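Incident log, support desk, overnight shift.

02:14 A customer reports that sequence design results differ from what the structure should imply. Their input is reproduced verbatim below. On-call engineer (initials T.W.) acknowledged and began investigating.
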């Protein structure tokens, strides 16, 4: 997709590298600031060190899901013949990989607080998982981790545009629920 965009505009390779480097740096900067504003700064005494990487990985995962849906939509356009099923397979593998990275960073964030069991530090974690809306949390885990994992390990799903699009929609819904669970319990501690 991006290769066709840059090829059509005949940009020099050096300018493409500079533009992509700048874009990646801005993405990390903006996502880090958003994670501080929407997550850890809403709770005055909570300063998780892995929260920004978790926010960034989650945004990558949701971005890959959005790219899958965009490519599925573009298959019906004049650009469609240039998008083949192998590209969907590769994006499905990338989505599966970022699903693993997301659960690893989430585990790294919450395991420290669970193990330490310091009341002041565990309170925000328990608020989001057990106290505020546990059904919503476990729904988010199902649609952002369990179902995508179980579906994406199957190569037939990754080679089906419809099934992969369904997984992408699940991840987008899970990402929206995740962001909701980051912000709203901090503003309204009682459900």
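02:41 Re-run completed on a clean worker. Output:
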């Amino acid at each position: 997709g991006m290769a066709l965009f840059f090829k059509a505009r005949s940009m020099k390779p050096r300018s493409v590298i500079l533009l992509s480097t700048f874009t990646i740096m801005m993405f990390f900067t903006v996502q880090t600031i958003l994670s501080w504003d929407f997550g850890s700064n809403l709770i005055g005494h909570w300063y998780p060190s892995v929260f920004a990487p978790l926010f960034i990985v989650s945004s990558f995962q949701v971005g890959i899901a959005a790219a899958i849906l965009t490519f599925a939509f573009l298959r019906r356009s004049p650009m469609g013949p240039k998008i083949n099923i192998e590209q969907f397979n590769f994006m499905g593998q990338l989505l599966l990989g970022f699903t693993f990275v997301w659960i690893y960073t989430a585990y790294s964030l919450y395991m420290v607080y669970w193990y330490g069991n310091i009341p002041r530090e565990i309170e925000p974690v328990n608020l989001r998982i057990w106290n505020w809306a546990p059904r919503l949390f476990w729904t988010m885990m199902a649609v952002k981790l369990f179902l995508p994992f179980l579906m994406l390990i199957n190569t037939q799903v990754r080679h089906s545009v419809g099934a992969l699009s369904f997984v992408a929609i699940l991840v987008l819904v899970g990402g929206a629920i995740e962001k909701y669970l980051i912000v709203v319990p901090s503003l309204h501690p009682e459900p």
